[in-house]
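Hi support team,

I submitted a single chain yesterday and got back a structure, but I'm not sure I'm reading the token output correctly. Could someone confirm the output below corresponds to the sequence I sent? I've pasted both exactly as they appear in my results page.

Thanks,
R.
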Amino acid sequence: MFPAKVTKPTFKCYLPPAQTDVKNTVEKPLKKLEAKLLSGEIVVNEVNFVRKCISPENNQEGLWGKLICTNFKVSFIPQDTSPKQKSTLSHLLLGEHDIPLTCLEQVVTVNDTKGKKKVLGSNQKLKFNPTELILYCKDLRVIRFCFEEAGPESARKVCLAIAHYSHPADLQLLFGFEYQGRRYHESKEERVNGSTPRGLQTPIFDRSSDWDREIKRTNASEWRVCSINQSYAFSSSLPEHIVVPSSLTDQDLMQYASSFTDHRIPMWCWSHSNGSALVRMASLTDPLQQKKTEQKIFAAITKSHPQRNEPFRSDLDKSLPSILDIQSAFVKLRQICILDPFEESEERWLSTIENSRWLEYVRVFLKHSAEMVYHLEGGNSSVILQEEEDRDLNCVVSALMQLMLDPRYRSLIGFQSLVQKEWVMAGHRFLDRCNHLKKNDKEESPLFLLFLDCVWQMMNQYPAAFEFTETYLTVLSDSMWIPLFSTFLFSSSKQRAQHLMDFAKHKAIPQGEDQVVYFPPVWEWSQQFSTKDQTLFNNPMYVGKGAACVQNGEVKTFKRKQKAYSSTLRGTPTNLRNGVKGGEESLTRRSSLANELKSELTPVKDLSPSERFFKDWFSRPADLQGLLIPLLMPSHMAFWKLFFLRWVPEACISKGGPVTTYHKLSQLVDEIEILQSQLRQYKGTSPGNTPLTSSGGNPTDQRRMYFQASSPDDPSTPPECLTSSFPFTPTGNLSRRTVQGTPISKFLNGARIWLSTETLANDTV
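Hi R., thanks for writing in. Yes, this is the structure output for that exact sequence:
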């Protein structure tokens, strides 16, 4: 017999068992780790044996893999991927662990042994080898990577590469220009004669025909499309086509324009059926000509009204918070939700949310928009929104007013056209407010996010009035940080046209090609999500003009008169929307507002016309296809948990939250639509039948709901992926503690955020 061979000690022998397992994971060459690259995307730098942290309290808990920096994103490729790590919402352009470079807020390197920490910018030097990399993202994620097993020099180089490429020196260096140029030429075979007609259902409002249709739809007969800004010779921030009073000639407009900031003359937004119009304009800069110019402009707007009523002007700079105030509130809110640990006292945590003033500002914008709606609807007067540059606050208020007044804008396509019209084409400074180039932090302000939060407040109060979901709003916000679409990249139509013209020349794109074809807007959701995932945008509770019902065995268009609406549709109680039935909100909140109005206002004085208007409106059942006014008391302002807490593991409720209700409703709607389809097949096609169409207008061969009805033999059970963060997952994002759950359960179950007693006492609608 041969003597037993003595095994030499290895490095693994000196490691504790838990660490040995991790080392085995790192060393085993199970697969070659390679990033999935888009067309035109190149790897700039990479480092192996990196640990993506899951929890800071357990040094060995995390995912091991390769960290890669490309000219588009930061990508982490895990060695082993557990099925539980997969996100429900699968992005076609980004992997689960990918972060677009434009989404990075801060790149922080840490060296624990030397106690050093540095925020990296472009072209900066790093004098120490980092042991950690922390990425603070604009979508509120916080990602941490550890380099204890990685090569020090490789780790340092990848950190510097990420910092450098996340601070592009010029707009043309954003990856979208390279990607869309290659995509255009690679898809030539899909186009006929070198061009493709627009397939978008969402109007872009870069053509006079889009404005003509809007004028006709709203019956604004006293207004006309004006092309005085053709080739942007008139104003650098207005679109080429605007709508102005018919009584004003182009010569009049050119004469008055010099008195307005950047020549931004009054521009029509929308017309009411009573003839009142919503108009926006910049401030007058010439004090000598101000009164004379105002009189002539206001006279033209008055003349456009059937009753010749004088317009009502609102100076938003004096009435609303500034963009700096909004940015300050958001920074505080982000600190509370993402960076600071949850306090042991939930009352203290809620008070810190209140002290950030974010919800106060949301309420102020909704309240002011509702007051302007009164002047249009109740006062029968045109409304002029005035702001110094007409590119920030006006965008929020004008869009919110139209959302309250026009049910068209509460459909998916209508809402997208509203954003395109009142934000993109009106010249909101997306490039500066999003700070894509990270050149001026003072210009950054989350105005568009504030608007989306206001929209969510209305959706939360009237869940059956909107065709889209809060998932759609969240995804739309996230799309601001993906530089592949034209919608959120530029600060004006002129800037967009100039950059895309240079881009077309550089990429040999034929002259005259439609910009929508070679650099599409974000509204082409098929570029980001599969058809299945896009069904997460569809609200199963939506009661719209296109909804269908069955009467006497026939599918008919679903219409209701105002009296037919039940009180339950005016605003589903919060406890039901969160999937938990409780008794604290058994009565509708609309009547409670009327009581508050009565108790506050009646003893002091008689109701003013505006107070009477709101009181009368809230006393009647809501018409979901008519005017919608949100509840405006501070206690009615809810916290948008899905957006602000979706990446926080402590706030994630397994098989809980609003998604449980969404899951059941989607299955019910899907089952109804299946029965309708079977009924049509049984009866056959007849002239009286109305074909059921999906939200996108396609035939219902394809299911409209994400969660589909289960068969009787296979009873439905909630999927494992259902959490309060659905369809997002906090897994892989930096958490503060390993134990799931904190003392904020009451808040997560639907508690309201109450402001101070003094604020409530002084509050009015």
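A quick pointer for reading it: The first strand starts at residue 43 and ends at 53. Let us know if anything else looks off.

Best,
Support desk
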